[in-house]
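Annotated sample (chain length 66).
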Amino acid sequence: MRLRVILEYDEAVNAWAAYCPELPGINSCGATQEEASKNFKEAAELFFEPSDFIVPAKSKVLQMVV
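Output written by the structure step:
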């Protein structure tokens, strides 16, 4: 899977931020561009890692776009 990752420098905290518009909620940062990229990749891998979470029987899973 190929994703667009955006790196932005934040002078207020003297660090690089990394995020992907297609994966809201997955963000990372680092002191350098390389560190921010590496940290984002790790966060995305954890996001897509299989989970043993089971939805309770009387629950529903919804997808909502706001």
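Annotation: The CA atoms of residues 43 and 49 lie 10 Å apart.
Annotation: The first strand starts at residue 6 and ends at 10.
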